[in-house]
């Protein structure tokens, strides 16, 4: 590897994977997140193009067998994090910069294109891309460390008062039941925004020493989705599996990803579970590109349990 290429790769790894190897900045990564729109089109985030020395975060759209970029970040390196409302309005949060001075923006998918609706801004009282979700009234719920904020459709921001003390919040999602599901480092909470009432649904969801850890520092729960009956599905990147947490808090393995694949995006659509995986893995972590190409894969699990591969990029 030539020195200029090595420097570009090293810079990209240091910025894009910083939150994977430090405690203070774990939230999401530039190729994480998957949502399905009302028509069944799949959107997922990954680097763009899939193989390049320069990597821009990108939202890719899958329509049938066609896969093409839908939204490309304004900077490299940066993150694009996907979320949707219960009625499947799609949003992408973009951030770039250092952990103590992130610039955040919020995009919404319109009828034909993505529209910038918030930012770019360094002000947490405007918007912050750490974890966020949207209700059907257009209110954005987002996290700054362990605090939740509500941004109304009119742009007013206020801190939410809830009956719990969270750790650093990594993932947020609304359920069809109108409740907010909050995932901090290792605990799943269910929050009634109107009253602030909070229930611990499951704790210690991350293993202390995962048997299937992709690489050191990657013991992370990246994404979650909630079905119509309140079951929660978690993309557990750190153990190459999807966990299912039922309404009573019972945790089971729903899907296992064989190495080198690891899940980091998940959504539900018409009774099927859609999972985004990547080949980020290999040991040691600082040389993962030398052992495992950086490729995405999208699969879905049918109600009967059959697993179907919808898309795999293999360098072609």
Description:
This protein is mainly beta and 316 residues long. It has helices at 3-16, 18-21, 288-291; strands at residues 34-36, 42-48, 56-63, 66-72, 79-84, 90-96, 103-109, 114-121, 132-134, 140-144, 147-151, 157-159, 171-174, 180-183, 188-191, 198-202, 221-226, 232-236, 241-245, 251-256, 262-269, 272-278, 296-301, 307-312. The protein has a 4-stranded antiparallel sheet, with no helix packed on it. A 4-stranded antiparallel sheet has the order 5-6-7-8, with no helix packed on it. It starts with a helix and ends with a strand. The model is unreliable at 1-30 and 281-286 (pLDDT under 50).
Explain briefly what this protein structure is.
The chain is mainly β and 316 residues long. It has three helices and 24 strands.
How is the biggest beta sheet arranged? 4 strands, antiparallel
Helical fraction equals under 10%
Strand content: 35-45%
First-to-last CA distance: 22 Å
Which consecutive residue ranges, at least 5 long each, have pLDDT under 50?
A: 1-30, 281-286
Which SSEs are present, and which pair or pack?
Elements: H1 3-16, H2 18-21, E1 34-36, E2 42-48, E3 56-63, E4 66-72, E5 79-84, E6 90-96, E7 103-109, E8 114-121, E9 132-134, E10 140-144, E11 147-151, E12 157-159, E13 171-174, E14 180-183, E15 188-191, E16 198-202, E17 221-226, E18 232-236, E19 241-245, E20 251-256, E21 262-269, E22 272-278, H3 288-291, E23 296-301, E24 307-312
Antiparallel strand pairs: 1-2, 2-3, 3-4, 5-6, 6-7, 7-8, 9-10, 10-11, 11-12, 13-14, 14-15, 15-16, 17-18, 18-19, 19-20, 21-22, 22-23, 23-24
């Amino acid at each position: 590897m030539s020195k200029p290429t090595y420097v570009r790769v090293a810079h990209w790894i240091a910025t894009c994977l910083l939150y994977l190897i430090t405690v203070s900045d774990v939230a999401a990564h530039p190729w994480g997140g998957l949502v399905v729109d009302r028509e069944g089109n799949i959107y997922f985030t990954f680097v763009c193009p899939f193989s390049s020395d320069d990597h821009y975060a990108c939202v890719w759209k899958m329509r049938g067998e066609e896969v093409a970029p839908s939204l490309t970040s304004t900077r490299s390196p940066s993150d694009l994090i996907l979320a949707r409302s219960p009625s499947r309005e799609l949003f992408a949060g973009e951030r770039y910069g250092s952990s103590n001075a992130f610039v955040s923006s919020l995009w919404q998918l319109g009828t034909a294109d993505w529209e910038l609706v918030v930012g770019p801004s360094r002000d947490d009282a405007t918007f912050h891309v750490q974890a966020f979700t949207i209700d059907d009234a257009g209110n954005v719920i987002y996290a700054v460390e362990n605090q939740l904020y509500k941004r109304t459709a009119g742009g007013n921001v206020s801190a939410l008062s809830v009956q719990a003390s969270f750790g650093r919040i990594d993932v947020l999602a609304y359920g069809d039941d109108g409740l907010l599901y909050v995932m901090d480092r290792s605990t799943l909470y269910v929050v009634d925004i109107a009253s602030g009432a909070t229930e611990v649904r499951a704790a210690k969801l991350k293993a202390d020493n995962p048997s299937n850890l992709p690489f050191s520092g990657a013991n992370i729960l990246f994404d979650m989705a909630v079905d119509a009956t309140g079951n929660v599905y978690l993309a557990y990147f750190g153990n190459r599996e999807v966990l299912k947490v039922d309404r009573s808090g019972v945790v089971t393995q729903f899907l296992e990803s064989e190495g080198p694949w690891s899940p980091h995006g998940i959504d539900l659509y018409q009774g099927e579970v859609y999972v985004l995986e990547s080949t980020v893995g290999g040991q040691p972590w600082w040389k993962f590109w030398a052992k495992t190409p950086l490729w995405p894969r999208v699969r879905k699990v049918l109600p009967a349990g059959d697993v179907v591969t919808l898309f795999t990029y293999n360098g072609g």
